[in-house]
Amino acid sequence: MSTAVSAATAAGARWAWAEVDLDAVADNIRTLRAAAAPSAVWAVVKANGYGHGAVPVARAALAAGAAGLCVALVQEGVELREAGIGGRILVLSEQPPELLAIAVAHDLELTVYTVTQLADLAAGGAHAHPVHLKIDTGMRRVGAPPEEAVPLAAAIARSDAVVLAGVLTHLALADEPDDPYTDDQLARFAAVLADLAAAGHAAPLIHAANSAGLLAHPGARRSFVRAGIAVYGISPGPGVDVLATGLRPAMSLHAKVSFVKRVRTGERLSYGLRHQFAADTSVATLPIGYADGVPRRLHAVGGEVLIGGVRRPMVGAITMDQMMVDCGDDPVGVGDQAVLIGRQGAEHITADEWAHRLDTIAYEIVCGISPRIERRYRPAVAPAGNL
Ligand SMILES: *Cc1c(COP(=O)(O)O)cnc(C)c1O
Description:
alpha/beta, TIM Barrel, 12 helices
């Protein structure tokens, strides 16, 4: 980064930013630990901590009693290690063979489900490296079929390269607690664990629950739970909303009004000129757009923004860097604070609300807040941890 760019960033000069409340992360971890007990909580900080910033979230989670961390990629684990984060870190799926030596060098525990990955680990120079054997009990994404669990565990036992640290599975429908599918998955998992024990391959750690599993399925709470979305204060899905009420969203999204104008009845605006005004009104422009993670379609599905503590409709197509808001006849000026996600006065807009309008899930909303948006931490963190 050039000095001028660094200075502009350091000054917080952009009128669009996200705030990440690390006290909320810590409170959520404590809430989840109480719900999961006696199971421990490992915090899932993949995808840059679901868009919140992996390093600050990881530090806050560990300080609040998370017993370990999970990531999706070797690169994500390396980022944590390079920031000085110790303790246990698990990579959740098999990785390209060329990354395994790096994973081993950074003490990243690995998920395995094929003999190929075991051979690659041995070839990569691993010695007694902790691996977690993943069984596909019904998610049908990755994992060994149940009948391969014992042969794979035996291969792990024979290998000098690895030791069996854990056995895991992943739930496909845990956020729909009325559906019996999760119980079927857990029963299949229990049968695999019994087979492993009978064959002399009991693992020190057993884990099955994601956030929804933790909240809704006591039987999924084993040695630890892998909590992702709930750590960030977001419910895993409408089916478990009532169980997630003790959580507090950590991320809010902010902008300042960059321009204000009056428009007349019948005028139209933005690309495609799709919005036409039925009355004279004031329109505020915000310097944030779809390149920042505000989905372009949000304006067409009732998206709103808080300005002056009042919900106001997005108008016209959201553009790459800017968007517009109808403020009626209320006084609004350049520099006024706008909240896209979060609280202002008595009103609040959640990532869930966006997700509901857009027919997606809040996971996609928070992960989609782009790197162009600066994350400001409360309480503040050292700049080195602010990546
Ligand atoms: C992402 C992920 C999780 C966390 O899921 P949440 O629903 O965010 O809690 C847990 N386990 C695995 C294998 C994952 O990929």
